[in-house]
Design brief:
The protein has helices at residues 2-51, 68-77, and strands at residues 82-91, 94-102, 108-115, 122-126, 132-138, 141-145, 157-161, 166-173, 184-193, 200-209. It is α+β, with helices and mostly antiparallel strands and 214 residues long. The protein folds into 2 domains: 2-58; 81-209, Immunoglobulin-like, CATH 2.60.40.2360.
Length: 214
C-alpha cells in the first residue's frame, strides 16, 4: 500500500513538471508569435513605402522623350537646314562648293561658295550683276532656273578675292517648277558661278519629297 502511494506521488510530481514545461513552451510560442507578427508588420510597412506611389503627389514622373516624328516636326518647324545634295570642284586655283539645302518641309536654299585657298589674291570678272545661277533638271528637262524672269544689270566688274576669302551666294526656292507645280523624285540640282573669267558648273542628284512652300 505504501509502495502504491509512493508511485502515485511520483506520478503527480512528474505530471506537474510536464504541465509546467508545457506552459513554458506555450508562453514561449506566444512570445515568438507576437514577435513574428510585429516583424511582419514592420516589413509590410516598408513594402508599402516602396510601393507607395499610388498617391499621384509622390509618383515618379515618367515623362518620355519626344518620339522620332516629334523631333522631326520640331526640326522642320525651326527651319533648320540640312544638305539635300552637294558638289565641289577645284578649278584654276579656286575652290567651288555647291549645295542644295532643305528644311524637309518645302523650303530650299541654293548655295554657291567661291573660295581662294591660296596666299595670292585672285581677280574675278563678271559681265552682269548676276554672280551665280541655279537650276533643277528632271529627265533631261529643265523645270526651274533661279534667274528666269529676273532682271540683272549688264556691267563689267572685277572683284578681288583675297587669300583664303570666300564669296558666298544664296537663293531661296519653294520647291516648285516654273509653272508653280511641286517637283518630286530624283532630280539634278545645278549651281553655276557666272563669272566670265572663272566660270564653274557643278551639279549632283537630289531627292525631293514633293513638299513645297509659298
Amino acid at each position: 500500500m505504501e509502495a502504491k502511494k509512493n508511485i502515485n506521488g511520483n506520478d503527480n510530481k512528474q505530471n506537474s513538471g510536464v504541465i509546467i514545461v508545457i506552459r513554458n513552451l506555450m508562453a514561449l510560442v506566444v512570445m515568438l508569435a507576437l514577435g513574428l507578427l510585429a516583424s511582419c508588420g514592420g516589413g509590410s510597412s516598408a513594402m508599402a513605402e516602396l510601393d507607395a506611389p499610388a498617391d499621384d503627389s509622390k509618383a515618379v514622373d515618367y515623362t518620355m522623350a519626344p518620339s522620332l516624328d516629334e523631333v522631326v516636326a520640331d526640326r522642320e518647324a525651326s527651319s533648320s537646314w540640312y544638305v539635300a545634295t552637294s558638289d565641289a570642284a577645284y578649278i584654276d586655283g579656286i575652290d567651288y562648293l555647291f549645295q542644295l539645302l532643305t528644311d524637309g518641309n518645302g523650303k530650299y536654299q541654293f548655295v554657291m561658295k567661291v573660295t581662294n585657298n591660296s596666299s595670292q589674291a585672285r581677280h574675278i570678272t563678271y559681265n552682269s550683276t548676276k554672280r551665280a545661277d541655279f537650276s533643277i533638271v528632271k529627265n533631261g528637262n529643265e523645270l526651274y532656273r533661279w534667274s528666269e524672269g529676273r532682271f540683272f544689270g549688264f556691267v563689267f566688274e572685277t572683284r578681288t578675292l583675297s587669300p583664303y576669302q570666300t564669296f558666298e551666294y544664296k537663293a531661296d526656292w519653294n520647291g516648285r517648277d516654273r509653272h508653280g507645280n511641286p517637283i518630286s523624285g530624283n532630280v539634278m540640282a545645278n549651281g553655276f558661278h557666272t563669272s566670265v573669267s572663272n566660270p564653274a558648273s557643278l551639279g549632283q542628284v537630289a531627292y525631293l519629297n514633293g513638299k513645297v512652300s509659298n
